[in-house]
Amino acid sequence: MLSASASPPAAITEYLRSHIRTVPDWPAPGVQFRDITPLLQNPRVFRVLIDAFVHRYMTPALRPDVVAGLDARGFILGSVVAYELNVGFVPIRKKGKLPFTTVEETYELEYGSATVELHADAVKPGDRVLLIDDLIATGGTMMAGRRLLERLGAEVTEGAAIVDLPELGGSARLRESGLPLFTLVEFDGH
């Protein structure tokens, strides 16, 4: 059985890392942008990526009732993982994108703030939720998503992402808050 801290096999990590493109000086000078689109473009690589998550969360102790994906790349991963696990998918959107009654959470960015929303009926009290995104940088978006889900009575059992940028402190902040994290690839330096 996998534990909450189990890492993916090194071969999978390196295979996925080799398909993540680094774009220097984007969106600003000095930033090394980690572009996951090559992971999605190649069907074989995309399957390895999705299978790495699905195999982990098929484990009964980690199996969610619902997968929640963060806007927008978390939708790509989360919906496919939810489909493969045969559970529902819930989108956590940027403010103003959901048509029904919502709950919202504002969080701080490096320069300013942002707000995410969730439909008020997206989860039920007691639902075990996997919260997924493409990348963890400062952790603000994932923390805001977690607060929304918990406000509706759900239990966020784990946060998951393809890439962790530990130098930016987000993964440490999330773990310190009590959220277990699972990531596939770590990059030092931004």
Keyword list:
single chain, 190 residues, alpha/beta, Rossmann fold, 7-stranded mixed beta sheet, two-stranded antiparallel sheet, 6 helices, globular, cytoplasm, adenine binding, EC 2.4.2.7, transferase, AMP binding
Describe the fold and architecture:
- With 190 residues, the chain is α/β, with parallel strands linked by helices.
- The chain has a domain at 62-186: 3-Layer(aba) Sandwich (Rossmann fold).
- The protein is built from six helices and nine strands; from the N terminus they run αββααβαββββαβαβ.
- The strands form two sheets. It has a seven-stranded mixed β-sheet with strand order 5-6-4-3-7-8-9, with helices on both faces. A two-stranded antiparallel ribbon has the order 1-2.
- The longest helix has 15 residues, at 43-57.
- It is globular and about 40 Å long.
- The model has no long low-confidence stretch (mean pLDDT 94).
Brief description of this entry?
Its EC number is 2.4.2.7. With 190 residues, the chain is of the alpha/beta class.
